[in-house]
Each structure stands twice: as structure tokens, then as C-alpha cells.
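Please predict the structure of the following assembly.
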Amino acid sequence: MLQHAVAKTLLYRIPMYLEYLMDIHENEPSLSHISSKKISTDLELGEVQVRKDLSRVCDKGKPKIGYNVLELITHLQDYLGCNQIQYAIVIGVGKLGSAIYHYDGFKKYGIEIVAGYDKKENDIPNIQFFSKENVMKVFQTHRIEIGIICVPKEEAQEVVDVLVSLGIKAIWNFAPIRLKVPKHIFVQNENLAYSLSIISSIINHSQ
Amino acid sequence: MLQHAVAKTLLYRIPMYLEYLMDIHENEPSLSHISSKKISTDLELGEVQVRKDLSRVCDKGKPKIGYNVLELITHLQDYLGCNQIQYAIVIGVGKLGSAIYHYDGFKKYGIEIVAGYDKKENDIPNIQFFSKENVMKVFQTHRIEIGIICVPKEEAQEVVDVLVSLGIKAIWNFAPIRLKVPKHIFVQNENLAYSLSIISSIINHSQ
DNA sequence: ATTGAATCGATATAATAATATCGATATATT
DNA sequence: AATATATCGATATTATTATATCGATTCAAT
């Protein structure tokens, strides 16, 4: 996994701040500045934590005034790299892959899914047959950095090997399996069954 | 949110251990016992952490031998409550909701999705029109504990209010919005755009 | 039986993350 | 101009989580 000096937990809150502030900007445009107190109340975080987090991305808070909403949005976007477009491809366009492929919430974060591949024939437009040759073509026209794996777990490693050989930087893995990749490639596992089972066990343990 | 004395981070590793051990059991049935060393190597965790985690769910490790695979699986399943079936419903059966609704990986964890609702007409079988009256019916025949929210963010709060009024215990929220619920209801937010943006920013920061 | 190796559990230490405290500063009010 | 108040940033403290160390236990080999 790539090393990054950024606190992991902070990284998970950044998109939350950004989404929240964009909402504020849209729905309460009169509010040009915002205090850490208000943010912390609305997002149910500690007030100090909010200030500390924001100080990592932006040092423009003023006493008695708070933070400039638009400035904050810009800094958060810069931090996340929303302005440099990053290209992704989806492998496996079954139900879940198709949902990801068509999801339009990624653009806001500067991420564009430029191609989808599958081994099976299907009726989704613009989906190509998965083969190294076909995937290579899109690598030649776009700087693909993220591969999104939505194939069954039996096929996942094989697909990932192809992407690695083509120079992928990061993998977003929905297959419930631990992928083997070189150390410099970042893998984020997203196992929906895990998430739901955690919810379920929390209900169990609270009874 | 409900309090639960369980370490949060441990809870996130439990399904991982379980999945891993079930794989071992299936593919290497000759391996009746397993050491913390092997588990930690395969799952890329600390050896001590594995022992500590496992000691929370099972105290049957033997020096020189390791843990009995089947015993461990049983304990992990008990811990997660896989054996008591919990019922869930999905609200919003667009692309993502439909993927969740049809996903068959939940059964293994004792979770069964028994109904799906939407406001729009659609061609997915067994999906009902979302209204308090219709949802109430399923609450009368099943002990529904988990509501899975896959509607657009504008409709999410309204849907959740209905579920809360019917006595839901937990919400798995895919809508990119912070839901307002009574304190005793557990909400797990699952924002796919956040996840992808985090991956993207990790790539950014490592360059 | 004795010794050695593997592995466990428990305790101690270190690393990370969250929260509390407090002086400093910018505006509003008198 | 002086004072009060909101709010910030920095530093200190506490809580949580992960890792290292070490004695104890179990089996295998001599």
C-alpha cells in the first residue's frame, strides 16, 4: 500500500465536510462564513476535531467570524484533488458493476468512469468484452488510474493481474476476496456483505 | 447510536476472519487447526492483533497447535449473530437498490432481504409501491430490523421517518445525506462517492 | 524423562486519534 | 477607547488501538 502522511481518519471526514459545505453553499447562500461550532453540531463531530481537521487543509479561520465557506470548499476540493480528473474503468458489469458504472455522483469528485468491460454479452451500451487487448486500448487514450472490480470472486485475481500489468495505480475491489498485488498499488476493499453483517451484529450486541 | 462495548475496529475484522476461515475450511479441509501466525500472514495483520481479536470471541487456542478452524468459524458466526436470521427491506430499487436487493452474499451472515419498495413503477418482480401502509404489512409478518435506503437523497429523510415510525432498529444508508433519527437507532452510512474520492486522493497525495 | 520448538495468553509499551484547556484575536457594544 | 463575546489555533491531556515482550503450555524428538 502507498504511504501517505495524511491521517487516515481525517481522510474519511474530508468528503463529508465537502459535501456538507456544498450543501450549505447551495441552500443558504447568504451564509458566507461558518464556525467550527456549527459544523461540529450539524455533522455530530467534536468542535476541536473540526478545527484541527480544517487546519490541515486551510489556515484561514478567523476568530469571531469562522471560515469562509467558498474558500473552504476550494481547499477541500484541492485536497481531494477534485479538479484534476482521474479516469477509472469498471470490470464486471452485472447488477452492482452496472450501478457503479452509471452512478453520476463521482464527477463531483473529479472521477470519470470511461469504460466498462465484461466477459458476458449484455445489453448495456458501450460495454466491451474484457480482454487484455481491449483494455489496453483505453489505457492508450486515457491515463487510467483506478480499476473497479465487480466480477465474481473467482475471476477477480485474474482481472487484477491484467490491470496491474497495464499499470493501474489503485483498485477498488467489490469482490469478497483478498487480492494479491505489488506493494505500490493501493487496494481499497468494499465488501457489502461485511458492512451489512456489522450492522446486524451491532443490533445483536445491543440487545 | 446504540452503545456496544465491542471495539469498533475489531468488529470490522470479524467478517474478514470468518470469510477467510470458511475459505480455508472449504479449500484445505485437511487443515483442522490454524495458527495466528498463518492467519496474520495471509490477512496482512499483526500476529498479536490476530490473537487478541480471536481471544475476544473464542478462548480455545492451544500452544503449538493453534486454533481449531471449525470451532473458530462457529464462534465468529455466533459473535456476528449469523445464526439468528435478521430481516431487512430495501427502499428504492433503482440500479444500486436492485443490485443490493439481488445480492446473494448476505444469507451467509444470517441476513435476509424480504421486500423491496419503490415509488416508481418498474419491471423488477416482487417490488411493491412504497407507502406506509404497504411497508406496514411486511412488519406484521416479519420482524424487520434493518432498512436499506437506496432512494435519491431528496426522498431519504421522508422514507426513514416512515421506517422509524414502524419501529426499525437500524438503517443502512446509501443516500449521500445525513439522516435525522432518534438516538437509539443505528445508522451506517455507505457513501460510494466518498469511498472513490478517498482512493483518488490517496493516489494524488502519493505523487 | 528431558529437551527443544512452536505457539499461546497476558502484560507492558508505543502509536494514533480524539478531546479538553487556554491564551490570542477579531468584531460588536457600550 | 474600553470591554465583552465569539471563535480561532496551539498545546496538553486522555482515550483508543496496535505492537512488542515474555513467561507458560503443549507436543515432538531424543
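Chain B has a mean pLDDT of 94. Residues 35-37, 51-52, 55, 59, 61-67 of chain B lie near DNA strand C (CB under 10 Å from a C1').
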